[in-house]
Structure formats: C-alpha cells, structure tokens
Write a structure and sequence with these properties.
This protein has helices spanning 4-8, 36-48, 59-79, 92-103, 125-128, 150-156, 179-188, 235-240, 275-291, 293-311, 340-347, 359-367, 381-387, 403-414, and strands at 17-18, 21-22, 24-25, 86-89, 112-116, 136-140, 161-167, 192-196, 214-218, 229-233, 251-254, 259-261, 317-319, 331-336, 371-372, 374-376, 392-396. By secondary structure, the protein is α/β, with parallel strands linked by helices. It is globular and about 70 Å long.
Length: 420
C-alpha cells in the first residue's frame, strides 16, 4: 500500500489551508496536483536550458533538444512504444482532433465510425462532423451497470466501419473497458482502432499491443503540467498521414510552391513545441515509475472499495458504474435523492436553489467542508441522457489521496440530511 501521508508531503498545494483546515482534493479525473519533483524539473529547464529545440547548433539549444527528445523516449518506454511513434500534442483532445482532421480526409458517404455511449465529448465531436459528409456515426450501448455491450459492438461493426474509437476508462462511470478483446474484434474487421487512454494510462499499467493503432492521453492527468499531451501511433500509419498543422520545424525542404515534410513524429509538431511540458511530463513519469503503476492501481482499488462500501450505507445516495472494483477505476459519480439540509444550508447564505437535487448543490455543500469534487455533466452529455440525468457529483482519487480523505468525504456526505 502506498504511504499516502509521505506522498502528500511531495505536493506543495497540500500545505494550503482554507479556513484553517486542510483541503481534500477529489477531482483528479479532471486534473492532478503536481509534486515538487515535477515543478523543480520545469524550473531547472527554464533556468538552465531554455532554448528552441531542433533549430540551432549552440550548446544551450543542444541541451534543450536533448531534454525534449529524452522526454519523448521516457514517454515511449512508459507505455512500451518506440520514440518515433510518440507525437507531443497539447492534450488528449488535440490528439483526437489530429486524427480526425488527418484520417478523416479519406472518409466519405457510406463509411461508418463506431464509438460508445460513454465517451467524453473529445471523442465524440471530432467524429460527429463527418455526418455532414454522409458518414454514419454509431454508438455502442451499455448495460444497466455501465459495461459496454460487446454483442452490440459486434452487431454494429460493419465492413464499412473504418474507425472504432473507444475510451479505455469512463471519466464518469469509472468503467474499465476490455480494450484487448475489443481490439481483436476491431482488427478482425479491418478497422482502425483508436483508444482514448486519458483515464487509464495515469492510473494502471498500460503496455502497447499490436491491436492498438492510436492511443491518446494527457500529461495534466498524470502529475504533469497542463498543455502537454501524447498521441501514440504506429509508425507506418503516421507516415501515411498528412500533417495536422503546418509551419516551422516540421519541414525538410520548402520552396515557393512545394514542400517536403519531416518524418514522424516531427511532421506533426509544427512551431515551437511545449518543451517545458515535455520535461515536466517526463519528471511525472519518473515519479510514477518509482511508485510502480501496479501499486497505483492497487491503491486506487483499495480507496474505491472502502468508499463504495460506505456509500452503500447511505440510503438516499446513488452512485453509478460497476459495483466490482476490479472493473472500475478510482472515479465515483453519484447523486443524492433527497438533500433538505443542502437547501437549508445554501439558502441561509442567500444562495437560491432551483433544483434540490442538482449536482452543483452537492458540490457546494462539500466545498464548504473543504472537500473538492466535480459536478455537472463532465463533458459527457450523451451519457447523461442515456442515464436520464442532468448531471452528477464526482469524486476521484489519485496517489496523494489516503483513507483520511475517504473519511472526510464520507463524513461530509453523512452531514447531508437524507431522511425522507
């Protein structure tokens, strides 16, 4: 078990007091806090090696380039890929849009794209735009507990299905999808398989497989800085794709009317890259490696297990997603059926409450106790419509959370009057 109290000491933000009390941060699914080791690596880069990469021959630029490319190698090693298969982007959203705007050039009327009902908007909107071309966008259904219906996936997978893009772990339900099994089904059909791994690579062991054509994830969800993301792609596929952006750095030769682009991955990294972000992400990966991703996963399962057990004891609280912690990550979306104390508490502070059960009310109630959870539709409105909800509150754990945070969360929920 991770020594969470020791890990908290690595994160400067947890020294912060609000009304004289510690904060309980339970929104790591949105973004994670940063350890001092990551912050130090960023400062060291700016103080000791700040220069544009790949463009100059002087020593400082060489040092910056080496740091940048070593960061790429570290990312590749972390997921079992090759360095030339790693493209740095801003985030998962940009990675998926890169694929949409490059691969999508070959899509036309009659083609199909298959995604799932639990996707984040970032894995819906980039594909939705092709419906204007006559491409059919289909969604795999879920069962009552939030698992993907694999029989439905098989039935909707057609010869015309060119792309299948699936989240590895839902950012709402916490469902961990069987991507190895899905990958085999998809490849047997001859379709391109894309994985949104924003919620999985940071939280569990992840190793590249032959079935995976593209994988996208974000640095800020795994202790790294904001503004740095990763797109893994099989090299021969990256070679075939046109560049997403065009400008400096990503060309071998250009004259007034013709251009020869660089080889991947540089072909996809036009302009001055986020060297700071790459360096910070690499330091975050080093931090996670020292813990061990198997231990990260084991720790989150433990916190999730004791949380779900406690939530089962709250009569009017409902949570969503699989009941088996082996099938879900450390994210718990929930609603309170009856919360009269929240209404009284908010209205006593002149906050008008239109809907007694709104997730924002729950989040505000918890915020008053320094327990920070997310509320709303979590950029997954189609899923909310599937569940018949306007939104949920959502708590999520990471390496710096411990049983003390679970206790504070459950205690705060217990202060809500759930008596009918």
């Amino acid at each position: 078990m991770i020594n969470t109290f020791g890990l908290k000491e690595d994160f400067p933000i947890f020294k912060k007091k609000v009304n004289g009390k510690n904060i309980v941060y339970l929104d790591s699914t949105a973004t994670t806090q940063k350890p001092k080791q990551v912050l130090d690596a960023i400062v060291e880069y700016y103080e000791g090696a700040n220069a544009n990469v790949h463009r100059s021959v002087y020593k400082l630029a060489d040092e910056a380039t080496e740091l940048y490319e070593n960061s790429r190698s570290n990312v590749a090693d972390f997921i079992g890929a090759k360095s030339n298969e790693i493209v740095f982007t801003r985030n998962t959203t940009e990675s998926l849009n890169l694929l949409s705007f490059t691969m999508g050039e070959s899509l036309g009327r009659g083609d199909r794209i298959l995604i799932t009902s639990m996707e984040h908007h970032s894995n819906i909107l980039p594909w939705m735009r092709f419906e204007q071309r006559g491409v059919k966008l289909e969604y795999v259904d879920l069962d009552d507990e939030g698992h993907l219906d694999l029989e439905d996936l098989k039935s909707k997978l057609k010869r015309e299905t060119k792309i299948v893009s699936v989240t590895h772990q839902s950012n709402v339900l916490g469902t961990i999808n069987p991507i190895d099994e899905i990958g085999k089904i998809v490849k047997d059909n001859g379709s391109t398989f894309i994985i949104d791994a924003a919620q999985s690579v940071p939280h569990m062991p992840f190793h590249m497989r032959e079935e995976y054509d593209f994988v996208a994830f974000s640095g800020h969800k795994m202790l790294g800085p904001m503004g740095i993301g990763v797109l893994y792609g099989k090299y021969h596929l990256l070679e075939e794709m046109p560049p997403f952006n065009r400008g400096g750095e990503m060309i071998k030769d250009v004259d007034f009317h013709t251009v020869i682009f660089e080889d991947p991955p540089i072909k996809f990294e036009a302009g001055t890259p986020n060297v700071e972000g790459a360096v910070g992400l690499s330091a975050a990966i080093d931090y996670l490696k020292r813990i061990g991703m198997a231990d990260v996963r084991r720790h989150e399962k433990h916190l999730t297990s004791i949380t779900l057990k406690a939530l089962d004891g709250l009569e009017n609280l409902k949570y969503y997603g699989p009941r088996n912690v082996e099938e879900r990550g450390g994210v718990i979306a929930f609603n309170v059926r009856d919360a009269t104390n929240i209404k009284k508490n908010l209205e006593s502070k002149n906050v008008k409450v239109d809907q007694l059960y709104h997730s924002h009310d729950i989040a505000t109630f918890l915020d008053e106790r320094n327990v920070y959870v997310r509320s709303g539709h979590h950029c997954a409105e189609p899923l909310m419509r599937t569940l018949g909800l306007s939104g949920t509150a959502r708590a999520s754990y990471y390496v710096y959370n411990g049983e003390d945070d679970v206790d504070a969360f459950i205690k705060s929920l217990g202060e809500i009057d759930v008596q009918r």
